[in-house]
């Protein structure tokens, strides 16, 4: 594996900044893993995430999805339960699901809930919260429009949020994707993060941008080239 890693790294010029187009070509060409690697974008933003008014977070539905099958759990009752099932939710229920999860069951990737049932879901805050699974109205996962929420997630809706030091990591697809699909997914994320710039952020906002596959080396993107669409 060391030889393959070195061969992949040799294709990348250290410290060189690439256009987004060239970077996607290299990410695909430098892949050596035996599985279909995920391609990630890493943003380094000029914000202080310790300040609530500089927290950058949001969601975007990728034009070509993530390439991953996402299991969606919905907390809903009555007609909304039927809507969720019809939209393709993998698990739908209320108190029965709360009980299963409280006993250690986590056979799902995303959680949606109707507002009227959040009182019940709140009991799971200590277990869903640390896993990033707690429904949140700001992210569109606490809503009465459960059908749209489920369909968006299944179609490739991704969430992003600044971590320590103002860094954001977002998956944009798989190495097996056509380069054009990776580019379009990347531009959708970059556009969304750019528009989410807090008014209190001073100085350079998009300080650094890198793309990498799960096992591959990271490539720095020339941020100034993004404006020209390259």
Would you spell out the secondary-structure blueprint of this structure?
Elements: H1 2-10, E1 17-18, H2 20-29, E2 38-45, E3 57-61, E4 72-75, H3 78-87, E5 91-93, H4 95-102, E6 110-113, H5 118-121, H6 125-128, H7 146-155, E7 157-161, E8 167-174, H8 179-195, E9 206-213, E10 219-221
Parallel strand pairs: 1-10, 4-5, 4-6
Antiparallel strand pairs: 2-8, 2-9, 3-7, 9-10
Helix pairs in contact: 3-7
Short description:
By secondary structure, the chain is an alpha/beta fold.
Query: Number of helix segments?
Result: 8
Residue fraction in strands: 15-25%
The H-and-E topology, N to C, reads as: HEHEEEHEHEHHHEEHEE
Spatial strand arrangement across the major sheet: 1-10-9-2-8
* Whole-number mean pLDDT: 90
By secondary-structure content and strand pairing, the structural class works out as: alpha/beta
Please state the oligomeric state of the protein chains shown: single chain
* Ends apart, CA distance between termini: 33 Å
- Tell me, what's the shape? globular
User: Which stretches are low in confidence, meaning pLDDT under 50 for 5 or more residues running?
Assistant: none
Number of strand elements: 10
| Helical proportion, percent range | 25-40%
Gyration radius, in Å: 19 Å
Biggest sheet layout: 5 strands, mixed
């Amino acid at each position: 594996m060391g030889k393959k890693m070195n061969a992949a790294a040799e294709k990348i010029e250290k410290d060189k900044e690439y256009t987004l187009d060239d970077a996607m070509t290299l990410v695909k060409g430098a892949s050596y893993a035996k599985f279909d690697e995920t391609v990630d974008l890493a943003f380094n933003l000029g914000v202080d995430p310790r300040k609530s008014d500089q927290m950058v977070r949001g969601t975007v539905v990728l034009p070509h999805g993530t390439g991953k099958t996402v299991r969606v759990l919905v907390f809903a009752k009555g007609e909304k339960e039927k809507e969720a099932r019809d939209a393709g939710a993998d698990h739908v229920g209320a108190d029965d699901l709360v009980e299963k999860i409280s006993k250690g069951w986590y056979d799902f990737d995303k959680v949606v809930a109707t507002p009227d049932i959040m009182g019940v879901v709140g009991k799971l805050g200590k277990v869903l919260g640390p896993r990033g699974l707690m429904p949140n109205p700001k992210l569109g996962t606490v809503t009465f429009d459960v059908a749209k929420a489920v369909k968006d997630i299944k179609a490739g809706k991704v969430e992003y949020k600044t971590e320590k030091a103002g860094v954001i990591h977002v998956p944009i697809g798989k190495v097996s994707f056509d380069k054009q699909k990776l580019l379009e997914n990347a531009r959708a994320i970059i556009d969304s993060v750019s528009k989410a710039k807090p008014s209190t952020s001073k100085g350079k906002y998009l300080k650094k941008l890198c793309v990498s596959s799960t096992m591959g080396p990271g490539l720095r993107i020339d941020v100034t080239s993004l404006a020209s669409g390259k």
